[in-house]
Amino acid sequence: MSDPLHQFVISPIWRINVGGVDLSFTNSALSVLAAVVAIGVFLLLGLKDKKLVPDRWQALVEMLHDLVAQLVRSNVGDSGMRYFPFVFSVFIFVLFGNLLGMIPYMFTFTSHIIVTFTLAMAVFLFVTVLGIVLHGRRFFSLFAPKGLPKFLLPLVAPVEMISYLSRPVSLAVRLFANMMAGHTMMKVFAGFSVMLGLGGVAPIAVNVILTGFEIVIALLQAYVFTILTCVYLNDAVHLH
Prior knowledge:
The chain is mainly alpha-helical and 240 residues long. The chain is built from 7 helices and 4 strands, in the order ββββααααααα. The radius of gyration is 21 Å and the shape is globular.
């Protein structure tokens, strides 16, 4: 059986070395580029001819737009719609990264912790800077729950701060772990199918089920990543 973790190995396609720094174009970079191009094509085709009665392509784009808009409004309020472009960009990038990884021989870049952590840090820094810009020093009242007795502040504030600083880690690990685990299981059962030959019908059936399940997970993880982004955004905009 081939190594089920081999699919996550980053390998160079074009080697580029500048001043001793490896800037090679890798399979991961190619997948990211493919996701960006696919997103651009998807949105351009869906919005090219705005029809009163949308066709399926336009309807799909509008459905994703309305889904994210509803998440922003329900978690942040109407005032949060000014940040809709950022939230939608996060959602569509994670969604396409997850779904493109389901195509055979495509690299799933959302299964790498460095990618998911970078995305999570982008969200974390955005909401933190936004909160400081909007509220100044009052932003740090986020670490002191309303109504907390002053004598408990030295105990509760560090706990709240650690919880806040752990947000990008939990956000990154959740996406990375789910995508990596699902693709690993699919590769394991695919290996069983090859090893068992004619007797590999059962693993093939399981793999078909896992494929459908993994597509659902890909959609769900993009949704969860986005809704948590909205929750963090709400904390930055409205504090407690």
